[in-house]
Design a protein that fits this description.
The protein is mainly alpha-helical and 172 residues long. The protein has seven helices and no strands.
């Protein structure tokens, strides 16, 4: 029997990423890669680490969504002579999207909030700028409230987009 997603090296890589803290991954890329002769800026480290981490979760979301489509749907399409490409485009992906869209939206929102981890390696993102300012004026609560507000604005915008997509692909 041919499977859509054999558990090979991809699974082991995804498991490693999903089972280690994102901050450790950020540190490994920023501080560990130079030992191998690869030096990245704080911005590039943040992009690579967040993409690497989020990609592992997105891969699992997509895999799970595709595997959730009933095998009988695939069998019926094959019995009608559909090619694998047509089967995926017309049968599997539209049904899987109903499962994939909400989970992917949630993962994107988690990614937005996780950008604050780049502050640990000195990248000047929202949280880092906030801490730099309150270190000089000691208005910790006020500035963290402002930072939280801006994270809330960003995630509210992402949530609105997610809601539109979920209406396009309603879960049954």
């Amino acid at each position: 029997a041919k499977t859509l997603f054999p558990y090979t090296t991809l699974f082991r890589s995804v498991s490693f990423v999903r089972n280690t803290p994102m901050l450790v991954q950020v540190y490994f890329i920023y501080f560990g890669l130079p030992a191998l002769g690869i030096t990245l800026s704080a911005f590039a480290t943040g992009v690579v680490a967040l993409t690497f981490n989020s990609g592992a979760y997105i891969a699992e979301i997509i895999r799970g969504g595709i595997l959730a489509v009933d095998a009988g749907q695939r069998d019926a399409a094959r019995s009608l002579g559909m090619t694998t490409g047509r089967l995926m485009r017309h049968i599997v992906i539209p049904q899987a999207a109903r499962i994939i869209v909400p989970a992917t939206g949630n993962q994107y929102i988690m990614l937005l909030k996780s950008t604050s981890l780049a502050s640990a390696i000195g990248y000047l993102e929202l949280l880092r700028i906030t801490t730099d300012i309150y270190a000089s004026n000691f208005r910790v609560v006020e500035l963290l409230t402002v930072a939280a507000f801006w994270y809330l604005v960003m995630t509210a915008f992402a949530t609105a987009i997610q809601t539109v997509l979920e209406k396009r692909y309603p879960h049954r």
